[in-house]
């Protein structure tokens, strides 16, 4: 039995919901915990793209997309994008 309570919204306000989720992640250091939980582990490769040209996504696609980027990789990508924009 799942004991988690989720908020019910009277009106769909995606901006408000996104802000609430972002605040929850910030207040609880969710991203930082997701990175630190893998300390000492080998890097997890994150494959992006369609699993095949003529097949629906299955569990194999979900597993390969469920990996985490390391924060340094994301930070480096942001730096490179900024340089390209200049």
Automatic annotation (TrEMBL):
InterPro entries named among the record's database cross-references: Rossmann-like_a/b/a_fold
Domain of life: Eukaryota
Name used for this protein in its record: Uncharacterized protein
